Amino acid sequence: MDRNSITGIILIVLIFGFFTWWNQPSEEQLAEQKRVRDSIDLVEQKAEADRIANAAKVEVETKAVVEKDSATIAEELTNKFGLLADAAQGEQTFVTLENDLVKMVLSSKGARVYSVELKKYHNYDESPVILMDGDQNKFGFNFTHNSRFFHTNDLYFTELPQTSPNKVDFVVNAAEGKLIFTYVLPEDGYMVDFNITTQNLGNVIATPNGSMDINWEMEVPAQEKGVSFERRYSGVYYRFAENDVDHITASGSKSEELRTKLKWVAFKDQFFSSVFISGDYFLSGDVKAVTPEDDNHPVIMDASAMVAVPFTGNDQHSFNFYFGPNDFKALKPYADLGLRQLVYLGWSFLRYINLGVIEVFHFLERYFSNYGLIILILTILIKLIIFPFTYKSYVSTAKMKVLKPQIEEINNKIPKEKAMERQQATMALYRKAGVNPMGGCLPMLFQMPILFAMFQFFPASIELRGESFLWATDLSSYDAIITWTGDIPLITQYYGNHVSLFTLLMAITNIVYTYINQEMTQSTQQMPGMKGMMYLMPVMFLVFFNNYAAGLSYYYFISTLITIGQTLLIRRFVDEEALLAKLKANQKKPAKKSKFQQRLEDMQKQQQLAGRNRKK
Hints:
Helices cover 44% and strands 24% of the residues.
């Protein structure tokens, strides 16, 4: 640093020090500044004190207003809702009861079942099976109090201290009276105990006709892949006191007024049900099912039921809820309640056939875990049972086939204008040769009930739900190998937006079987157009079964395939030349007359003899 720089720095310091000394305040100025600061502090302290005082005053006034408003509100609620004022408002709380099978959430608002989950079942998209959730389920009864209409679904109940982990009591207090809803979920099982208790409510609430009309409304959600197919096996079911079970289906809008005693009412989908059961009997009931117009709507139906029980004001009504699968084995403990009829197995004797099929099906389950293999074995067993009828049918058809040249000879002799005479000659030939033209049809009539029974059995079998086999990921639903989006006129409406492979295979085997039958039964007497009609049936099956359960199409495919094999095998062991020789030998024998024919001829002879005697 040079001398000039050092000189500059010294001059700057001297100048700064001089100005500092020159500008420092005097003692009078310091005293004035202190006085001003003290005045400001006093003003700020007074302002803070005023703010605190005002805040306290506002708080007191606000509290008085709130207390006054609360009192006013309470007074208004009491005037409006009477003894139920405390239950008319509140906050909704939830309680969960669950075991290894069911998770049930209860709501304090309405003391109702809020949601139900079946823990051992999942949907095709791996989501849990939820039978109901939130406002999808409404439950309770209407009554009158203080000249107003109430519904228990809108009241806020108070939860009582739990006496056990699987029991919940909800109560509404009204002066000396009480309304109590109690739920008990067992440690194992799908059956829930439910009680309604009324104490000293006879002068507090009034119900119509001296009965408690319990209303139950529920949006039944779709659980399966094919909603339209699921709706075919869904509905509102109910059992009468006389043990008869009836239902209305989940299609369109249907309702029934049931003016007789009922045991239970069920909202049923294809594989699961929610059932409300009376410990005694419901006095009467009304049921209704409304289906959404949209075929792809996630709700199967809006189901509702109204059932009546007696009401005196001091009542104890015992009920049950069944939330579970439509499983024949799971419903066995409740067979006396008739809940097994929730598994729809067809009407009349078809149900009895399916009851036997179920026993065989469950027997095979003990030894095989693959349900595709179980269906195959079941089909083989059924085909072996009806094999004698299949054989008889083939032989009868073969007899008619070898007589074809003689039938053509009759047709050539008798013109087609004399159809009755031609038919009589043909029947005479059959009778003389010992051929029953209905022999090929009667065995088929025996097999038809089994085919119809299987049509009811497979869509109702929850055992197939979610079970895969080959390319089918779920044997209870369709097995699409090709799908498309968008609406194709007529095709999407009647066929669907996919191609089911088992249905396609079933149609192909039916065409092959039809061809084989046409070879066996070809005759000049065949009705015009009948041949084309026979081939049209497999095409109709292709359309009709495309949305049905893959297990059903698989069964029909295997059954028809085995029938084709049996037919080809029988053909190798039936010698048509020997059969024709036997029929010709029968034709040479004197025809045996039935007793009726003999009596008829005797009567004719007597008439002829009497006529001759009169002429004499």
